[in-house]
Amino acid sequence: MTFYVTTPIYYVNAEPHLGHAYTTIVADALARFHRLMGEGTRFQTGTDEHGDKVMEAARKADLPVKDFVDRISDSFRRTWDELGISYDVFVRTTQASHQWLVRNILNKLYDQGDIYFGEYGGLYCFGCERFYLERELEDGKCPDHQSPPTFIKEENYFFRMARHQDWLIKYIEDHPDWIRPERYKNEVLGSLREPLEDLCISRPKQRLPWGITLPFDDRYVAYVWFDALLNYLTGLNYPDGENYRKFWPAAQHLIAKDILKPHAIYWPIMLKAAGIDPFQHLNVHGYWQVAEGKMYKTVGNVVEPRSLVGLYGIDQVRYFFLREMVFGLDGTFSEEALRSRINADLANDLGNLFARSLGMAFKYRQGVVPAPQDTAIEDDEVVFQAQEAAAEFLRLFPEFEFPKALARVWEFVGHLNRYIVTTAPWELAKDEAAQPRLDTVLYHLLEGLRWLAALLTPVMPTSAAHMAERLGLGASLWAEPLPKTLDWGGLTPGTQLQKGAALFPRLE
Ligand code: MSP
């Protein structure tokens, strides 16, 4: 089984913000999960560097466009590196191999008669880089940018989309979870009830010189979306690359709902016309909002991911993102909510469990993992709970049910905390005859923590590594694929535990 996950390639008209970080972190967590499951995994992200918006931003920054896009693209890459994002490939639409691929596909479609030359006049939003129909506007304004579009009329090249409309509708109906969650599938089917207009896929150079020159007419550059969507093939070295054979069509595209239409309509039709199989799934999430409305780079109410991570820690932010937002629905971001998750779930529940368990192992057993003796019913219950939690997590996580998957794991954390209370190891420690019982209880706690470290690795890789270190396991925790790691009893008695700093310091 192979798994190929992609993020949108982000526009380089401004620095990365929290919304970009969310999609990228979700992709990273999924990639780590599938790698841990032992599947061939590829994770691609990158930057979208052509188009009006980017050129306009370069002009504002008073820099040559190429210098400007290099700078911002670099900033995205550095941000992901600092956030420990484990991407396998970072695609830039200005790279030669991408330009070659776009021209190659354009030529093919042109030769086949899927592209024609014509004239079009319409309402154009420069922010969205697309034409709007009257009925799509709100009070005459672009619904996303709240600014009136400009009427433009010009000669351009058009991609025949209408001829694939029936195919697309049928494909969506035959593959009901292809676009998920369902609400977005319905939205796409809804918009396909109207006849599809052909897509204008060129921009005259005199208006927009910054783009990929059309191979069949050098007075024009390619429309930025036509160029950008193809990035998902560039990183696999379509058509001859080994990765293309290995990972296409296993693609799991991740996007927010803002770019549903290009991904759910243009992209499958482009693939279809080019004779390429459709991707596996389009996974659509909602918006993070701050106080009022979505975070827009162009509006300015953005939260800078690097400073947030600097303040709270990368795993804390990752956990919050995944625990807090139901994939597909909007979420409200506030530092207050983040702080309360950190204190309640991380510092109190997991952090204390970890500290108390290791603390007792040091206090009563010099930090050496004891061998479990005869088990009692409450110990067997721990094993049962661990297995249930793991099974649920392994089922829910790859289905994008992150809050449920994590809540289930936290039930197990709660179970272990209660197990400490009911078994009261500090009482057992006082009683000579209860020493075998104490060994068993400590073993179950430490083995439970090993499980938690393994399960939480995709979500909180740094903290999981810290836990593995303290449990005396180091990288051996990931020596086997995840399901095997979760065989109960993997922690070897006699293992020397390590002392160290608190897992999740409490915020005051
Ligand atoms: N360049 C295009 C995508 C081309 S993909 C072939 C683009 N870029 S973007 O920089 O505007 O990024 C949009 C994406 O960033 C969203 O689809 C989403 O993944 C992420 N987000 C941006 N703002 C967001 C929120 N406020 N909330 C959640 N995700 C957000 O569109």
Low-confidence stretches: none
What kind of sheet is the major sheet?
7 strands, parallel
**Chain-averaged pLDDT:** 95
Tally of DSSP helical segments: 19
First CA to last CA: what distance?
46 Å
- Cα shape: elongated
- Structural class, by secondary structure, is alpha/beta
Ordered list of secondary-structure elements with their pairings:
Blueprint: E1 2-6, E2 10-11, H1 18-36, E3 40-48, H2 52-61, H3 65-82, E4 89-92, H4 96-112, E5 115-125, E6 130-132, E7 150-159, H5 165-174, E8 179-180, H6 182-191, E9 199-200, E10 202-204, E11 213-214, E12 217-222, H7 224-229, H8 231-234, H9 242-247, E13 251-256, H10 260-274, E14 281-285, E15 288-289, H11 305-312, H12 314-324, E16 331-332, H13 335-365, H14 377-396, H15 402-423, H16 425-430, H17 435-456, H18 461-470, H19 482-485
The structure holds 5'-O-[(L-methionyl)-sulphamoyl]adenosine (MSP).
Residues 8-11, 19-20, 22-23, 48, 228-229, 231, 255-256, 258-259, 287-288, 294-295 line the site of 5'-O-[(L-methionyl)-sulphamoyl]adenosine.
Notes on the protein architecture:
This protein has 508 residues and is of the alpha/beta class. It has helices at 18-36, 52-61, 65-82, 96-112, 165-174, 182-191, 224-229, 231-234, 242-247, 260-274, 305-312, 314-324, 335-365, 377-396, 402-423, 425-430, 435-456, 461-470, 482-485, and strands at 2-6, 10-11, 40-48, 89-92, 115-125, 130-132, 150-159, 179-180, 199-200, 202-204, 213-214, 217-222, 251-256, 281-285, 288-289, 331-332. The strands form four sheets. Strands 1, 2, 3, 4, 8, 13 and 14 form a seven-stranded parallel β-sheet that branches. Strand 13, helix 10 and strand 14 form a beta-alpha-beta unit. It is elongated. The relative contact order is 0.11. It binds 5'-O-[(L-methionyl)-sulphamoyl]adenosine. 5'-O-[(L-methionyl)-sulphamoyl]adenosine binds next to strand 2, helix 1, helix 7 and strand 13.
